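Escalated from tier 1: zinc ion holo job.
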Amino acid sequence: MFDGDFWRQAPALTVTELADLLFPCHCLLCEQALSQPFHAPLYCEPCRLQITTPLDGACYRCGIRLPFRIAGEHDVPLVTRHQTLRGCPDCRRKKWAFDRTVAVASYEGRWREHVYRLKRPHHSADAFQAGKLLGERLLECEWWTDYQMLVPLPVHWRRRFIRGFNQAEKIAEGIATVLPLPIATRALVADRYARKQGTLAASARLINVQNTMKLGPDASMLRQQQVILVDDVLTTGATVNVAARLCRQAGTKRVAVAVVARAGRF
Ligand SMILES: [Zn+2]
Ligand SMILES: [Zn+2]
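Tier 2 regenerated the structure:
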């Protein structure tokens, strides 16, 4: 058997390094083998660079991707910095109950396929990984330190039963591995079973989301706080706006929105 010297000479492995060795990871978008720490989001660097929208290339208020022109090797926003800070033309017309939005990427291409998949039954691990990426995205934004809580959007128990989990909760759990913020899962609760938003036109979505959620048993936690609402996709903003309005009713000072994907572009 091995004597004492063998063990002294053997390289010391941390638990994380051992896990990397036993369970090699692959990028969830291109399936390429990853050589990054075990706890990092499972997306390779080229995929990340390809999908993510530059922070100054999106409307600060609703997160929509703004138009770009190609100048040399770099994308340059067509809008000026001043216009970005005022919000896109749509945001200047609308009265949102939330102050700002951050998204990992536009809801298109491979990211769209991935985000669509993370809502399906038995794909909670994908939602968790996308949440980690969103956490890193929030870390890039200096403002996240002003917020005290993550509030995942609730889903109706019927949908949760079919899916086996609430994807917004799983995304929030992923964010919480990067940012030290508590998750308030019962501050907002689902009230009425709504049809899937994706199948409806914009005007019908507004009606569809009314009365779909209400303040939950932990709503008092929202009082005097600044909270980040968490969801998977922001399309018209109708659903998060209902949630943000409820938070305001409960006494929340400021509401930000964090989503893994923002649908649409100018
Ligand atoms: Zn990749
Ligand atoms: Zn906007």
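The radius of gyration is 20 Å.
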